[in-house]
Specification:
By secondary structure, the protein is α+β, with helices and mostly antiparallel strands. About 40% of the residues lie in helices and about 20% in strands.
């Protein structure tokens, strides 16, 4: 048995352990039931549960949730649309999310799956500096899917940039924001009135 202050009290009968806990107005909690003999501890169980829930909430706050964002393309996607969708995937990856790129085939397009695969490979090549291919292009029915994940160094750089940006924002500095020089003293604000 372990006391409320963490000191070993030795092996005690259950009744005596309960009496010691009641004398201190605390609870007798079995912390290691499978040990020989079982280990019990004198503690305030309500406070213990409260602290455990606080630790769990704190751990959940620090947890990073990665979402799977999806964009859809067709084999006949034009250059501008391709670049537009590539920028979206770039933004998703820089935000730390994974991107699922779906190539949709309609009608007889499914006969020419190599065109869709070529477009997906081109997208992966375009984003190779920031993306890892987590799942290579795979045909599932009339859709071909590929999953891209952000490279670890990109994720670290984004976290560092976010930390640096939040650390300097809202400071009590005495300068102007945006890097524009302050007007000379005595100059009226704004354009002159007619």
């Amino acid at each position: 048995m372990v006391g409320s202050d963490g000191v070993q009290l030795g092996i005690l009968p259950i009744q005596e352990a309960l009496e010691k806990a009641q004398a201190l107005s605390l609870d007798l909690v079995e912390v290691a039931p499978l040990a020989k003999p079982p280990v019990c501890r004198i503690m305030n169980y309500g406070k213990y549960r409260y602290e455990e829930s606080k630790k769990a909430k704190e751990a959940k706050k620090k947890q990073v949730i990665i979402q799977l964002k999806e964009i859809k393309m067709r084999p006949k996607t034009d250059e501008h649309d391709f670049n537009f969708k590539a920028r979206h995937v770039d933004r998703f990856l820089r935000a730390g999310h994974k991107a699922k790129v779906t190539m949709m085939f309609r009608g007889r397009e499914v006969v020419h799956t190599q065109l869709g695969k070529r477009l997906l490979d081109r997208l992966a090549e375009t984003l190779k500096e920031i993306a890892l291919i987590e799942q290579n292009p795979r045909l599932e029915g009339r859709n071909m899917t590929m999953i891209l994940a952000p490279r670890p160094e990109v994720r670290r750089a984004e976290r560092a940039a976010a930390a640096a940006g939040s650390g300097s924002a809202g400071g009590a500095g005495g300068g102007t924001s945006g890097g524009t020089p302050a007007p000379p003293a005595g100059t009226p604000p704004g354009p002159p009135k007619p």
